[in-house]
Specification:
7 helices, nine-stranded antiparallel β-sheet, globular, 23% helix
Length: 246
Amino acid sequence: MLSKASSLWYADAPNPLAVLRANHDPDPEAALALAKQLHDDCDVRPIMVGTLAGCAGPEAGQVYIGCYPGVTVLCSAQAARIRPTEIPELLVRPLASEHTYLVSFDAGHGWGAFAHWERGELRRSFSSTRVNILEDEGLPLVWERPYWAGEHPVQWRAGELPDPQTLPFDPPDFADTANNEWLGFHYRAPAADGALVPGDVPICGFTLYPKGHAPEPVGQAPADGEAHDQRRRGFFGWLRGHDRVL
C-alpha cells in the first residue's frame, strides 16, 4: 500500500488498463523527450528504471515517466498541488491527449486530490484533508456517491479522537478510487488475484539539474541494436512485479 503519490496520466487509449496489462516496455526515448519538454529550464539526466510501486511520489528534482502506446504517466512533485486547477497548463496537456487524469495523495497528512481534463478542459477537480475541502470543481461523478454517503469512513486507530467536522471518507482512499475508475488499478487498496499492481508498471527516472550544472554523463559504448533491444526487453520483464528501484 503506497502512502504517497503524485501522478498525471495522459490517455488516448480507450482502455488504459488493457495497455498497462499488455506488458509494453516503456519508451525511454519518448520519456526523455517529454522530461526535456516539461523542464526546458533544466538539464535532464536519466538515472534509473523503477516501477510505480517505488517511484509514484518523487521529491522535487526528480521525475519518473512511463510512455506506452496511447498512455503516458508522469510522476512529479508538481502534481502534488493543493488545488489541482493551479497545475500549469503545460502539465495538463503536453501531448494533446484526449484525457488527462491527476491522482495525488499523502496518507501521512490525510490529504488526497484527483482531477480530470478532457482535451484540456476541466471536468472535475477535488482536493481535501480529512477535515477541510480545499477544492471542489465540476459535478461529482457517479462513483463518488458511496464516499459522500459515508460508506467508506476513516479507519481511526485506537485512542484517536476524530474532529467532529471530519469528512465521511479518507481523502487518500478517495483519490485512489479515482485512479481505479480511470486507470483500472489501485495504488492503496488490496489487490485481487491477478489484478494489476503498481509494481507491474515500469517507469523511467530522471534527475533535474539547473542549466549548466549537470554532471557529465559517463561514457558508454553503443550496443548493437538487436542485442540492445533484447537486453531491454529482458530487463523490463524481470523488473515487473518487483517493488524496487534500480
